[in-house]
Amino acid sequence: MSTYRVALIASARYPIREPFPGGLEAHTWQLASRLRERGHEVTVFGGAGSDPALDVREMAPLPALSAHARSDVSMPAEWFLAEHHAYLGLMLELAAPDAPYDVVHNNSLHYLPVAMGPAVVRPVLTTLHTPPTPWLESAVRLPRTASTPRFAAVSRTTAEQWRGLVPDIRVVRNGVDTAAWTPGPGGDTPVWSGRIVPEKGPVESIRAARAAGTGLRLAGPRPDRDFYDAEVAPLLGDGVEWVGHLDHAALARLVGSASVAVVAPCWDEPYGLVVAEALACGTPIAGFARGALPELLDDTCGVLAAPGDVDGLATAIRAAAELDRSAVRRRAVEFCSVQAMVRGYEDLYDELAA
C-alpha cells in the first residue's frame, strides 16, 4: 500500500471535537484518524478549538478591518467574510510549488477550495457532502482543465444530483467505526439524533412518536435556538425529552438502548451519518424515504414512510421495532464501515498520484 502526505481541508467555522457540531466534523475526525493509523501523514486544516489529538492547523482568522471597510455598504456578515479569508489564505498556501503534500483532500463545504483547485500543483480531491448549493455549483461550473479537482460523493443519491456537472464523480460512502458503535440491548424509548434544525425533521419525528404512543428521546446540538424554542420545546414532555448534546460514547449507549432510531429528513439528505451509527448499534430505522435513506436501508434494517407522512412514520416506528437487531448490525458491518470508506479514498489517492 502506498502512503501519502495528505492536506485535509475541513470546516473553518466549526471545531472538530466531541461532541461534534455535525456529521461533517465527525466524518473529518474519523477520516483523519484512520488515515494516520494506516501510515499516511495527514495535516488537517480546520477551525479553532479542535481536538488537540488531531493536531489541527487553524486557518487564518479574519484580521481587524478598518472602519472604512466595515462601514462600506458591501460589508457581508462577519462569519461569511471570515470563512472567505480563511479559505483564500489556505488555498494560496497550498498553491505554492513547494507545498509539502502529495494530495489535497477538500472535505469542506466552501466554494474556494473548488474554484482555486486548478491553481494547486498537487492533485485535488473534493468530497461533495451536499446536493448542489448556489456557491458550490458556481465553482464546479468553472471551465474544466487537466488540473481540475476530482470529485467524490458520499452516496449514490448525491452523485446523481451532481452527475450533470461532474460526469466522472465517484461514490465513497461515509463510514462509522463499528468497533465504537456497538450493538446495544434495544427495547427502550425510540431515539432521534442530529442537529436540531428544521431540515432534519425533529418536529415531524416527535409528532410521529406521539401518534405511535412510544415517546421519543432527542439528542444533539441546537444551533438554531429560535427554531428550538418556538417549534421543538413546546412539544417536549409526556414521554418526549431532549437529553442534550452528547459525546460519541454516551450517544452510542443511548442509540443502542433504543428500540428504534427515527430519521425524518425534510430535505434530500445526502447520506445521514445517524443512520449508519444506529445500524451499527443494531437499532433499526424508521424514517422518511427521502435523500439517501432508501439507498442505505433494506427491509432487514428499516421501515420507510413517504416523505412528510407523519402518520406513516408512526406506523413505521411500530413496525421497525419488530426487526431483528442482529440483521440490522450486519447491514452496518457490510455496508457502512469506516474501513470501506478509507479504502475508497486510498484508491482515489492512488489514481490521483498516478
The mean pLDDT is 95
Strand content: 5-15%
Distance between the termini: 14 Å
The gyration radius over C-alpha positions equals 21 Å
- Segments where pLDDT lies below 50 for 5+ residues? none
Question: What does the largest sheet look like?
Answer: 7 strands, parallel
Helix tally? 14
Shape annotation: globular
- What structural category do the secondary elements indicate? alpha/beta
Helix content class: 25-40%
Tally of DSSP β-strands? 13
Order of helices and strands: EHEEHHEHEHEHEEHEHEHEHEHEHHH
Strand order of the largest sheet: 3-2-1-4-5-6-7
InterPro entries: Glyco_trans_1, Glyco_trans_4-like_N, Glycosyltransferase_grp1
Domain Glycosyl transferase family: 193-324
Keywords: Glycosyltransferase, Transferase
Organism: Pseudonocardia abyssalis
Task: Explain the overall architecture.
It holds the Pfam family Glyco_transf_4. This is Glycosyltransferase. Keywords: Glycosyltransferase, Transferase. With 354 residues, the protein is α/β, with parallel strands linked by helices. Helix content is 38%, strand content 14%. It contains 14 helices and 13 strands. The strands form three sheets. A seven-stranded parallel beta sheet has the order 3-2-1-4-5-6-7. It has a three-stranded parallel beta sheet with strand order 8-9-10, with helices on both faces. β4, α4 and β5 (124-128) form a beta-alpha-beta unit. The radius of gyration is 21 Å and the shape is globular. The protein starts with a strand and ends with a helix. The model has no long low-confidence stretch (mean pLDDT 95).
